[in-house]
């Protein structure tokens, strides 16, 4: 047992002494020691219920024959950190979460780990820790929020509130209507109710095979999640007995399949960043071009908010992620149904009883929204190392967009430009120096994309940035443009009025300026000094790599 390192032999008498002080009994020393990696925190609705949740996890571990030891990671609420300096900490928090979990797991030699994530950076941070430490692991997330409903019966999500701000500011909504949305959009604990980043990652974990069927869609308030916990605890003990580790489950094929699910559900663009980071931790070489290959062979089966009004709860009632995975498994050559998972069964065995119960929420290949996936990687002279778009949340009539650049050196300036009416139909808003190094921290930009959508301009204005988006962002919004401006990427060379062409079919993003002129501009480009000079963000900016490699830290 790994934990023998801290409990076996005469020289571990002091260690045992401390363990007894924590409540461990002599007879417990032969049982597996399980780290319960929790992420309870009061300020995130997706995590506020996790203190009680972890109590259930600990009971379940004891019932399954293990000894639980709970510890916590931090978390950032992206919605609350949105639109101000706080958002710079969001993506960097992912590495702190991975590092803190690694620290506790390796310092104490746990035999297995039960992870409890939920919101945006917590899930990928914990997944990174799981493949990095490679100790037998299972995941049960906190679960999605119930969908909101306005007093007039309209389905609501957090996206409705962000877009409501733009609608109110442009005179398309009254103050009373906005207040009604604000009060009703987030009715319970849980991760925000659409196919935003948290729910994208929590659904992806079902496909990765590290979480049980139901993990992505069973709402946080449902008692059935407790059964998920009890089942997961038993599986974890089996994984320890059979020595099945995260890297036995997460292989290159697994990463392919995770992206396939992303394509079928129109996941958040952030999943690209996170899944690449997980691949990196697992020492899997993963090229962005591979994602487009998967996109081309995977139909878009389920449109969820912000691409439609359906919530995660609707997906659950329609058969859940299992029904979508089953569809994908039964298509020729789309995923790898024989992969092993934490249940000890194959991916296909896990889902073979599932059924799509609503043919609009979960479609078949024949009735799919499109024969290609809901996410796309664009390449071109403006993004030699790629950019990402949630193409599934673009009006389906838009196949390409040509517009003139209106350039902002920060998100704040862009937001002012959108709110003041400076940004108009036909513009491509360029927001730069917001990448992993430039931001620093690659802030998520729901405020500007929602300001555009809320004004009804989402089919007439495009937005490109070296920053990133929320899963609730929609419209022709291209993020992760790499290399980023702070590294001298071509996005730094765009001038106001330059023509930019975006082709969603060819998957291209081009600046229609001659190479000669660009070369001239490049000569005059001056690398800006880092915006933040001390603390974690300064250290982060020094070590972080480009978005096309997951924005991981490298020495
Ligand atoms: C606040 C949101 C909607 O959760 C966002 O952070 C996302 O990435 O989806
Ligand atoms: Mg987010």
TrEMBL record:
Keywords of this entry: 2Fe-2S, Amino-acid biosynthesis, Branched-chain amino acid biosynthesis, Iron, Iron-sulfur, Lyase, Magnesium, Metal-binding
SUPFAM superfamilies: IlvD/EDD N-terminal domain-like, LeuD/IlvD-like
Domain Dihydroxy-acid/6-phosphogluconate dehydratase C-terminal residue range list: 360-550
Pfam families the record matches: ILV_EDD_C, ILVD_EDD_N
Record's cofactor remark: Binds 1 [2Fe-2S] cluster per subunit. This cluster acts as a Lewis acid cofactor.
InterPro entries per the UniProt record, alphabetical: Dihydro-acid_dehy_C, DihydroxyA_deHydtase, DiOHA_6PGluconate_deHydtase_CS, ILV_EDD_C, ILV_EDD_N, IlvD/EDD_N
Pathway stated in the Swiss-Prot or TrEMBL entry: Amino-acid biosynthesis; L-isoleucine biosynthesis; L-isoleucine from 2-oxobutanoate: step 3/4; Amino-acid biosynthesis; L-valine biosynthesis; L-valine from pyruvate: step 3/4
Active-site residues per Swiss-Prot or TrEMBL entry: 470
Cofactor: [2Fe-2S] cluster; Mg(2+)
The protein's enzyme class: lyase
Catalytic activity, EC: 4.2.1.9
GO MF annotation terms: dihydroxy-acid dehydratase activity
N6-carboxylysine: modified positions: 121
HAMAP family: IlvD (MF_00012)
Family note: Belongs to the IlvD/Edd family.
Role, per record: Functions in the biosynthesis of branched-chain amino acids. Catalyzes the dehydration of (2R,3R)-2,3-dihydroxy-3-methylpentanoate (2,3-dihydroxy-3-methylvalerate) into 2-oxo-3-methylpentanoate (2-oxo-3-methylvalerate) and of (2R)-2,3-dihydroxy-3-methylbutanoate (2,3-dihydroxyisovalerate) into 2-oxo-3-methylbutanoate (2-oxoisovalerate), the penultimate precursor to L-isoleucine and L-valine, respectively.
The protein's name: Dihydroxy-acid dehydratase
